[in-house]
Amino acid sequence: MEGIWNRVLEVLAVYGLKVVAAVAVLIIGRLVAKVVQRIVEGIMAKGKQEQTLISFVSHLTYAAMMAFVVIAALGQLGIQTASFVAILGAAGLAIGLALQGSLANFAAGVLMIIFKPFKVGDFVEGGGVSGVVEEIQIFTTQLKTPDNKLVIVPNAHMTSDNIINYSAKGTRRIDLVASIGYGDDIDKARGVLQSIVAAENRILKEPEPKIAVSELGESSVDFVVRPWTTVADYWDVKFALTEAIKKQFDANGISIPFPQRDVHLYEHKAADK
Fold first, then answer.
1. Is residue 205 within 8 Å of residue 256, measured between CB atoms?
2. What is the pLDDT of residue 273?
3. pTM for the full model?
4. Largest interatomic CA distance in the chain
5. Are 77 and 70 in contact (CB under 8 A)?
């Protein structure tokens, strides 16, 4: 009986120290992981990174450090960790292959948050969709279209092609084409267009609006009308100018030729009669 008791004490002496060491590694490692997590959060916060990215990276850092701490604790118990690490690596590879689409979206989301090609509130075109950015998440970007539809675009799609940010510069140029007939006076038409542009107070003085003859078409002389306005006023000014051009051309006896396709359609209908 005494021999058995001595054996038990011997085992406790050997493995008890290993258990104590493993527990100490877990406790100290957890404290260190928490400190490193707070350091990462502080550095990213000073760099004015998005809160979503800060939270994700800090938690990812903590999880990675805790994985090393657990492996170190198992090593203190005498458990062979090489095979354990190999199993974790194989499992990670399998999960990565299964979630490669999600990982691509995650990587694209991180890049967008870091490099900021657009921000919440910008009107952008990307991933085959145009709209106002409502939220930028790690995996997706939410856009609100002009007709008030919510579109959720995977981040990988947003970054797979060109991104057009219409709000980045604060101003936009309106591109209109005003056509007159060959029998109309070009100088008179230019004067009418200049008066229309001058009367619109939402048009910017700088850069100076451009009005010029751009093309001699098959059935019309085409003017380009290119004034500048703020992004917020773009559509309202464009619609107002289009309406004003039609009204002022009519009031001044300036004809607006039919588009060539409409002329052909009219000719075919006349021939049928």
1. no
2. 44
3. 0.61
4. 124
5. no
